[in-house]
């Protein structure tokens, strides 16, 4: 994209967002704040499935880095986005009222996202429901004021305090490895999934999850596949939280990163490499490796 085209797009995106912010363009979509969403998760046994920009792109049948697009995925995601379950929180980006608390790069990203995707939200979101905020799991990078993250991460860690947890994640994800994100849990077991196109292995992932009793708290980090897995586990009577890239945000938080930085553990794949890295506790927690 040429500099002129890029600049024109940025100006148009900012203008469209200005119309939203000033209520010139009407918006019927209602989204809780991060604190309100976290309080719902803390004080109830509700499950959660999260929609970020990637899931909205997939509804439009646009592929993303870790999942190929298909009409089947698009249709399934659009149905989940218009959910009807009182005990299942569906989250979307809290970007419709204001972006004033976002850093410059985040503000530009979401303005651009809305320029192309606002009609998708308006078509599939239920105007009679209140959605949770997707930023519960992406609460560090976006913000201009990062001091709020102390409060948010304290609440997040409280959700699984003293709980027996099953983490379903990609082979590169390593949720909680090398940090204290899950230090308060009673126990952790893991189901390790393919790092790409996990949707194709959903039957095997589901089979592994259904071996557990319903007192386990499921935490999911398997991209687009997590939306379908979360819904089905919820229907089966489990409490399940789709946490997405929460661990990545937590790593940036504890490192006080000023920009997005790569995390070393995300390059480690396979038993031999994990053993060489000293991730012995992580390997001991793995019950299924798909």
Describe the overall structure.
- By secondary structure, the protein is α/β, with parallel strands linked by helices.
- The chain has one domain.
- The protein is 41% helix and 14% strand.
- The chain has eleven helices and nine strands.
- It has helices at 3-21, 34-43, 53-59, 71-81, 104-124, 149-159, 202-209, 225-235, 246-254, 271-276, 280-285, and strands at 30-31, 47-50, 88-92, 130-133, 164-170, 187-193, 217-221, 239-242, 286-289.
- The strands form two sheets. It has a five-stranded parallel sheet with strand order 8-7-5-6-9. The protein has a four-stranded parallel sheet with strand order 1-4-3-2.
- Helix 8 links the parallel strand 7 (217-221) and strand 8.
- Helix 2 (34-43) runs parallel beside helix 6 (149-159), helix 3 packs across helix 4 (71-81) and helix 7 (202-209) runs parallel beside helix 8 (225-235).
- The longest helix is centred in the middle third of the chain and has 21 residues, at 104-124.
- The termini are far apart.
- The mean pLDDT is 93.
């Amino acid at each position: 994209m040429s500099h002129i085209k890029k600049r024109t797009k940025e100006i148009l995106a900012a203008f469209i967002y200005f119309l939203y912010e000033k209520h010139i363009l009407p918006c019927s979509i209602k989204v809780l704040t991060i604190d309100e969403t976290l309080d719902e998760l803390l004080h109830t046994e509700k499950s959660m499935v999260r929609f970020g920009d990637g899931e909205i792109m997939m509804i439009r049948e646009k592929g993303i880095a870790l999942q190929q697009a298909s009409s089947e995925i698009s249709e399934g995601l659009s149905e989940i986005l218009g959910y009807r379950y009182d005990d299942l929180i569906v989250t979307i980006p809290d970007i419709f009222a204001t972006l004033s608390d976002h850093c410059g790069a985040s503000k530009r990203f979401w303005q651009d996202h809305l320029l192309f995707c606002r009609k998708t939200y308006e078509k599939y979101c239920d105007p009679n429901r209140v959605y949770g905020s997707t930023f519960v799991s992406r609460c560090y990078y976006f913000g201009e004021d990062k001091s709020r993250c102390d409060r948010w991460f304290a609440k997040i860690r409280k959700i699984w305090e003293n709980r027996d947890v099953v983490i379903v994640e990609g082979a590169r994800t390593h949720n909680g490895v090398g940090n204290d994100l899950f230090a308060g849990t009673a126990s952790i077991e893991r189901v390790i999934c393919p790092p790409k196109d996990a949707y194709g292995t959903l039957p095997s992932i589901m089979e592994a999850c259904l071996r557990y009793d319903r007192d386990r708290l499921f935490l999911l980090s398997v991209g687009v596949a997590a939306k379908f897995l979360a819904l089905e586990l919820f229907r089966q009577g489990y409490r399940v939280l789709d946490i997405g890239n929460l661990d990545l945000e937590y790593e940036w938080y504890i490192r006080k990163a000023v920009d997005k930085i790569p995390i070393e553990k995300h390059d480690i794949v396979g038993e031999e490499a994990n053993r060489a890295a000293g991730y012995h506790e992580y390997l001991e927690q793995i019950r299924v490796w798909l």
